[in-house]
Amino acid sequence: MPAAPLDEADGAEDAVEEPETGPLRRCMVTRERLPKEVMLRFVLSPAREVVPDLSARLPGRGMWLSARADVLERAATRGAFAKAARGAVHVPPDLRARIETGLQGRVRDLVGLARRAGQAVSGWQAALEWLQKGRVALLVQASDGSAAERARLVGLRQVPAVTPLTGAELGALFGRDQAVHVAVAPGKLALAIAAEAARLAGVAAAAGSKGRAPAGGVPPALP
């Protein structure tokens, strides 16, 4: 999905006043309406600090942003949160770092859940066997692994791949020091991992995080 131009946050109040029902939410900076799964929700703490609500379950009126580094920067520096909240707010200086850390944690949890459910395997040979049998909906590959090796495993297969975690982080989920390739079977967990990886890639895009997948605004298309 092409990135929308950044408008002034004049419509922030309107965006936050929209009822939080239905599958779409309006970004208070770009004004585009997107599926809530690919966006970021924020609420205010009792001390009026902006808090990322990555699971979209915290109480309070939600403020929604597209999961893009430039949008987050604009909201934090141009007063979008204060306009939406209709009053002074505190935007933590490490807000983006908090979001990245939180999203990485969500990816780890989901990949770990897929492993325990028998829906994910790690290692070149195991991933290749699943690919050959058509059992793979998503490849989660180490962000610090060899790009050439990652591409060689995928070959000409039309399998989406994301790189949200390092080899050590992936390895820890499978009881090993390193894991470069994790194959995930079709299902809700693959969809959820793809969505969280896309949000992480969007937020981390301008940070130059090593090996991160390019931001896309929407999760990779899964079979």
Protein model, in words:
The chain is α+β, with helices and mostly antiparallel strands and 223 residues long. The protein folds into two domains: 9-93, Hypothetical Cytosolic Protein, Chain: A; 97-207, 60s Ribosomal Protein L30, Chain: A (2-Layer Sandwich). The chain has eight helices and nine strands. It has helices spanning 12-17, 69-77, 80-85, 95-116, 124-132, 147-154, 167-173, 188-204, and strands spanning 24-26, 33-35, 39-44, 50-52, 63-66, 120-122, 138-141, 161-162, 181-184. It has a four-stranded mixed β-sheet with strand order 6-9-7-8, sandwiched between helices. A three-stranded antiparallel β-sheet has the order 4-3-5. Strand 7 (138-141), helix 6 and strand 8 form a beta-alpha-beta unit. Helix 4 runs antiparallel to helix 8 (188-204). The longest helix has 22 residues, at 95-116. The two termini are 18 Å apart. Residues 1-10 and 207-218 have low confidence and may be disordered.
Corresponding CATH architecture of the largest domain: 2-Layer Sandwich
CATH topology of the largest domain: 60s Ribosomal Protein L30, Chain: A
Rounded average pLDDT: 87
Determine the structural class based on helices, strands and strand pairing.
Answer: alpha+beta
Looking at CATH, the homologous superfamily of the largest domain is Ribosomal protein L30/S12
Number of strands: 9
Shape: elongated
Helix content class? 25-40%
Order of helices and strands: HEEEEEHHHEHEHEHEH
Q: Main β-sheet, in a few words?
A: 4 strands, mixed
Q: If strands are numbered along the chain, what order do they take across the biggest sheet?
A: 6-9-7-8
Q: Could you name the ranges where pLDDT drops below 50 across 5 or more consecutive residues? A: 1-10, 207-218
- Number of continuous helical runs: 8
* Overall number of structural domains: 2
Cα end-to-end separation: 18 Å
